[in-house]
Amino acid sequence: MWPGRVGRVRGRHARATHSRRNALASNPKLAVLLLAHGSPDSPADVPEFLKRITGGRPMPEAVVVEVKHRYSLIGRSPLTEITLRQGQSVQTLTGLPTYVGMRNWKPFVAEVVAQMARDGVQKAISICLAPQNSRTSVGLYRQSLGTPPFQVDFVENWHDHPLLIRAFAEKFEAGWKKACAEAGARVPVIFTAHSVPRRTVDEGDPYEAQAKETAAMVAMQAPSLNVEDWFFAYQSQGMSGGEWLGPTVESVIDKLHGEGHRAVFLQPIGFVCDHVEVLYDIDIAFREYAAKKGMRLWRAESLNDSPTFAAAVAEVVRSRLEPDKKPNLVQLGS
Fold first, then answer.
1. 40-69 confidence digits (pLDDT tens)
2. What's the confidence (pLDDT) of residue 235?
3. Average confidence (pLDDT) over 149-175
4. Is the pLDDT assigned to residue 224 strictly greater than 80?
5. Domains located in the chain, CATH noted
6. Are 188 and 229 in contact, with CB atoms under 8 Å apart?
7. Which residue pairs, CB below 8 angstroms and at least 24 apart, start in 111-119?
């Protein structure tokens, strides 16, 4: 299997091959490259995975043990599998060959870029599947590309794309209404994004402003959600030293508990699929934290295979094409 090429995702051989041939025949030099963080295949891969994240620097043994424990509790992260499916959906919508590269695990970005070159790609539209721009995420993804032997149009951010906002809002509405019905009351909402070191924002990183803007736009898409119903917090702070962006999810849960709330609903707006930050940090750690205070916790479903999300990525691709080369996107935004 070609590394990172989504055209051969298991169970889609005939359809994907037909789509790939049509795309290559119509525009053999243009492709899409989706970039994601990557995730270890099993808890046993965690030490090597962490070394890649730190650039080879050793992590304290306690950190390695803790991360292995978290992965053991969720079994495995489905990040790669889901991202490949997302790539297949984008390829179907755009008609363009779509590749997926991971910064910290297989299929590695460098291997995927090499395959793209062998496939004759001369220009790629590259999108990082972290919509808000931070040098600690999007910046590192861009660095992972190195110097490809073809032109790269790198999308810096797309945190406010209308279809991305709609995709989050669809998941939010379904989950929040269900939570309110089960709780028998209006459940306060915490929009969350992955924390980053405070120094990056102090040095001009746009991440904090973009994450809060995404949350506010999603909240505005929910007509039944009042401004006093929702809050914003950061999750998944790193285990390294230094100050990280806050407030933390735990501190906001504490605040809500102190105000007499017995339920809370979480809506991550910085993640586009299930992985350890969702399946462990939210589903296990935050749920247990809330339970110890006598509070129930729900969360919105992740975007995963959302057709609206795939349409958002496809529309971002379309927006970067020259007018005479824009494909007809299948049911875009419908």
1. 999 999 999 999 998 888 889 999 999 999
2. 98
3. 97
4. yes
5. 6-158+305-325 (3.40.50.1400), 162-299 (3.40.50.1400)
6. yes
7. 111/3, 111/4, 112/3, 112/4, 112/5, 112/33, 113/33, 113/145, 113/146, 113/148, 115/2, 115/3, 115/4, 115/5, 116/31, 116/33, 116/148, 116/150, 117/148, 117/149, 117/150, 119/2, 119/31
